[in-house]
Amino acid sequence: MNFPARTTPRLTLLASAAMAVLSLSACATGPAPSAAAPVAQAVTPPPADAARAPGAAPGAAAAPGAARPDPAAPRPFAEVARDAKRSDGFVPVWRKDEKVWLEISKEQLGRPMLFSVNIAESVGERGLYASQMGPRWMVEFRRIGNQMQMVARQTGFRADRDKANARAVAQGFSESLIASGPVASAEHPERKSVLVDASLLLADLASYSTALERAFRLPYAPDRANSFFQDVRTDAGLTTLSAKVHYAVPRIPVPPPLPPGTPPNPAAQTTQPPQFTPDARSLFVTFVYNLRELPAQAMAPRVADPRVGYFTDTYTDLSDDVRANAKVHNIKRWRLDKKDPNAAMSEPVQPITFWMDRNIPVRYRKAVEEGILEWNRAFERIGFKNAVVAKQQPDDASFDLMDARHASIRWFLGADVGFAQGPSHSDPRTGEIFDADIRMSDVFGRGGRRLVRDDFYGMAGGEVPAWKAGLDALGQGHTHCTYALDAGDELGFALDLMEARGELDPDTPEAERFVQNYIKDVITHEVGHTLGLRHNFKASTTITRDQLKDTAFVTREGISGSVMDYNAFNLPLQGEPKTEMNMVTLGAYDLFAIEYGYKPVKSAEELKAIAERSRTDKRLAFSDDGDVGPDGIDPLVNQRDLGDSPLAYAQRRLQLSKELWARVQARQPQAGDDPERARRSLLAGFRQVGTLPVMAAKYVGGMHTDRDQPGSGRPAFRPVDPVQQRAALRFLTQELFSNDSFSFKPEFLQSLQQDYIEWQRTGPLNVPQAVLALHTQTLDRLMSPGTARRLLDLPQYLPEAQRKSALSLNEVYSTLQGAVWSELKTGKATDELRRSLQREHLQRLKTVLTRPAPGTPADAVSLARLQAVELQGQLRAALGKKAGMAVEDRAHLEEALALVTETLRATLQRM
Questions:
Q1: DSSP letters along 847-895, please?
Q2: Nearest Cα to 305, choosing from 524, 586, 613?
Q3: Spatial distance between the Cα atoms of 250 and 394, rounded to a whole number of angstroms
Q4: Using CA of residue 195, residue 201, residue 203, residue 206, what is the dihedral sign?
Q5: Which residues in the chain show pLDDT less than 70?
Q6: Which listed residue, of 55, 176, 367, 499, carries a Cα 20 to 30 Å from 295's Cα?
């Protein structure tokens, strides 16, 4: 149902204002007084026709003592709906010109339904993009007098098995008002339903103004007068309204003045207006509102198991106080029932259908379809044929894939975007997934064809991109997947390396197949999310390094145990045989996870037996986002690694990056080259190396984790072998701290051009800055309170006979300091890279001694002081031999000595 484009001439605006005043008056207990007349004369008598007795002649006066109609009462249903067109469905919708009403029946009052908000159109920057799924609530309509409320039920606490506690839960935890508006009509004579002005939805229901303010630092507010409904769709069980909501600010404030000569700092600006709207004061966001009927027969919930990674709908069951943990975790999954329950292989009653957006470029559609249908391999193993179906939305389709009826793969664009993600909406009662909309940006085109600019992705991988900041503003950043972005980096690096080797021409069918495999891999990953699966960041380590070199094995089993990992590309070192480089099939863990979530089972014991297999089959190992964070302790849990030794992978990836850099430096620029080609290749290597410091540093003080349940016989925490810990420490301090790893010819750096057509230019490439970003990551991890605590605690986890061989905190501090300040012993000159590294180390040493972070062990402070005293002596000795020393070195060492002396004299301030 389409509405004509809205126009707002002055007369229309005045009429809208008048209608708003009348609408507000209808909400009051009586008519508002006139500003120009005494209060006693403010009430306007109703027309004589309205007050006459039934059957009286049109001009007859009302009989003395007859009851007058309540002027605040809603008008008759037929009068409000006159000339309006009704669209039947779950919640019927009436429309007349630009007016839209919802018809709410008595049966729907107090009846739970699912209300979801999706974002179909947005501003296209800083995380605020089109084709995004928004929030969902379980709501009910409530009539309070002549006011209709849409109230979100509280679902986080329940007491379904105890009536007394259920009353206490209702009193103890508040519900939320999502929207409200006046009842527009009296009850329908037969249906007993009422009309409610749908403009109650033309508000900030999704709290998008908060997202806008956090992204742009401007207080955008919804402007209902210039907001309107575009489309309405009603079906049995679902009503969808598409609304274009106008957000505005009256003015863009002037930034605060800066002192003369101070360079502008964009990060310090109080406001950051949108860059790509014609007028930053005004923008439109199109919301798709879905009112969905909940199933009369709720799906049987399936409990979560920590050994299998599913997203969950979680609540606290307060029905009794017997259980130690009152939390109930139901996995999120689609309802999937066999047409023939007795058949070994049967099609489902209702398949899981994904619609492919008509905006997806034709050249990618086959790979997207293959990524969707790849999951049928897992469902066939548990007896479902064609459980997952892919359909292409026709170009002339009248339906919107953002409604709650169609799970979809959506293609969207943005000025600063590069990701694909797969969120979903589910029934909070049971975890049943109703809707999922995978959003994929043109990272496939830009990443796959190397059109990504270096200032978009950042230099060494440490920056937070603008799109991620925007998603954080929506309160969703922590749940969002960056696999497409990371895989795009992997693809670019692989293409650059193979082209530099002369193994691949970027314009050949082989290169196109490589890109298509990458797309299929990403889509398979995101579809896995919409099937309910979490990330599994331990899966890549279940494939050995020898297996990765076996073409037959990786073609059959994959290069990783799961598509739900962030898998690196399987790139061979020079001279090694080339095998399959992408994850083009499901892994062993994926088959196992689908079996746990979707296999028809008859008992909890049968379900538990499935999960128990992970104890004996190492291919089914699982760890999720909570284990991989910056403070993760298991070196086998990483993003973007490959093989059973992440340390070996880190060494290989540094070697591959150095090879790419050497080849790019050796290649002579050719006429017709992209000016930024060499610059992008250099940064591609840095982005690869940027993942290595934390990956290797996890070994130092690391603990292997296991998710076995009590009674399995295996330890939950197991210290990393001290030999591996020391090997990782050597890699960090001898290879990543070595200038030889980042040596570039001056002629090469001089040749790195920039795009002079763009107004904003990056200037000469700052290699020391990129290297320092790697160094600071290493220092931060090795000198963190968490690493210190684990190293001090590790001996407690070891038998007495093994404690002497454990890596100690003192050994880490002394090894680190010796590597950073090695010139003090060798007497060699210290260049800019090394001086920057030494300053960063000294700053962190100062922090530990003067303002230690919360959680820093006292022994760490004592050992750091011991290292500082030793460093002070070494600096004095080096300055005593300053004959022939470069002035930069002498100035640097004198500054370092002054700082360490000042630090040792300072008073400790605990934070």
A1: HHHHSPPTT--HHHHHHHHHHHHHHHHHHHHHHTT-TT--HHHHHHHHH
A2: 613
A3: 41
A4: positive
A5: 1-69, 262-269, 417-419, 443-479, 760, 908-911
A6: 176
